[in-house]
Amino acid sequence: MATLTNGQVDGTVHGVGVVSASTNGLVNGLNHSHSPAGCPATIPMKDHDAIKLFIGQIPRNLDEKDLRPLFEEFGKIYELTVLKDRFTGMHKGCAFLTYCARESALKAQNALHEQKTLPGMNRPIQVKPADSESRGEDRKLFVGMLNKQQSEDDVRRLFESFGSIEECTILRGPDGNSKGCAFVKYSSHAEAQAAIGALHGSQTMPGASSSLVVKFADTDKERTIRRMQQMAGQMGIFNPMALQFGAYGAYAQVQQQAALMASVGQGGYLSPMAAFAAAQMQHMATINGLPGAPLTPTSGGSTPPGISAPTVTSIPSPISVNGFTGMPPPQANGQPPAEAVFTNGIHHYPGKYDHLRDKRTHTHTHTQKFKSAYPAAYGQISQAFPHPPPIIPQQQREGPEGCNLFIYHLPQEFGDGELMQMFLPFGNVISSKVFVDRATNQSKCFGFVSFDNPGSAQAAIQSMNGFQIGMKRLKVQLKRPKDANRPY
DNA sequence: TCTAATT
């Protein structure tokens, strides 16, 4: 590694004085001797075959002006953009870099990629063509059920006969231990396909619990969905959004939207509500330790930047019906209607509630709507709303036979309230109880929910059994009648 | 058992 020295890397302030005076590559280019000949200094132009580079593992305290000096070593920069979160503006730890000259990009990649670790990072800097530069072809494999002792070279040897391997990475935890899986990227889809055919299930590595898994790696969209699901487990009681919408509503909404977008392709329509929820989730993922970051949008302007407060009528997608208008309309007694039925993932409320839905639809923002729909949730999370929750913790009651559900694999942090929130969309919940270990006061991760009619119970089973929260899937089934396990 | 990040 010839060009990126310790001094340059460690001294994050090095050169900043020089560069910070200028705000674009044009001026820098004029000040530097590295400006390539083919790139006129006065008009920033890039080669028609220029490569956009993705730069990863950038400390979050470095912005464009700090990074510029590092990369100008290799040529004149056409564009350098640090990626920031759309809503929070937070530095994502990576950037896009385009040099005027294709050659500069190749030089930079050669000299920097994985060659140096920037201060505070525990992985080396990444300099490689951005995803947008590649032929978007599916040629990356996920390899599971490896032996944790196997190295990159071992994996390479296993896969090399099927094609030329561009990239081979063992997934490791922060401690550097293998997670028993890897990514292998071939130069073509056909090679990857060949490897799947030959290797998937072909053998069982010593110490692995089942045979080798070789499949195409998740797409970005699949990863997004996966993250949302994992995050769902975390946000249960901490994210007020989950309470507003009902934990179930928010998760289902985002998952379905993501799935919809995946099927529609890029540029698919994301409902404002799903975007809101997604932003919240992103937010929650990164908020830990961020001083001053707002935890909830409950006071004053209750919409995040970039999201106006739309009405339901502005959401054309039928999917959007679910989790929104599908929420139980507010009732005078604070209870949802027992008539709610659930079909094909979409809630339908009979005509008698239409006026409520229409009224809210046309005159209220989402936030207002959910304030009224979920006053209990708001009461828990904010003092800003003076009205006490009308949903009063009910007596421990059991419904008639066929109305009582047993729920297993609840998130650890779910209490009676969250359990009820999750099942409210299916009908009139007359009781919800999470079982708690007497000694530790910890949830035992199972509980019971009772409805006042068997239809609601069945609807809940249909929709919620197998519903993924975090890494777990809910088990939702009818509670065994009391005498079933007392055969005498 | 799906990376740390991809406008």
UniProtKB/TrEMBL annotation:
BP GO annotations: mRNA processing
Nucleus found in the keyword field: yes
Alphabetized SMART domains for the sequence: RRM
Compartments where located: Cytoplasm; Nucleus
One Pfam family cited in the UniProt record for this chain: RRM_1
Source organism superkingdom: Eukaryota
Record-level GO cellular component terms: cytoplasm; nucleus
Molecular function as annotated in GO: RNA binding
Domain RRM: 51-132, 139-219, 403-481
Record key words, sorted: Cytoplasm, mRNA processing, Nucleus, Repeat, RNA-binding
Coiled coil residues, start to end: none
Family the entry assigns: Belongs to the CELF/BRUNOL family.
Protein name, entry field: RRM domain-containing protein
Gene this chain is encoded by: CELF4
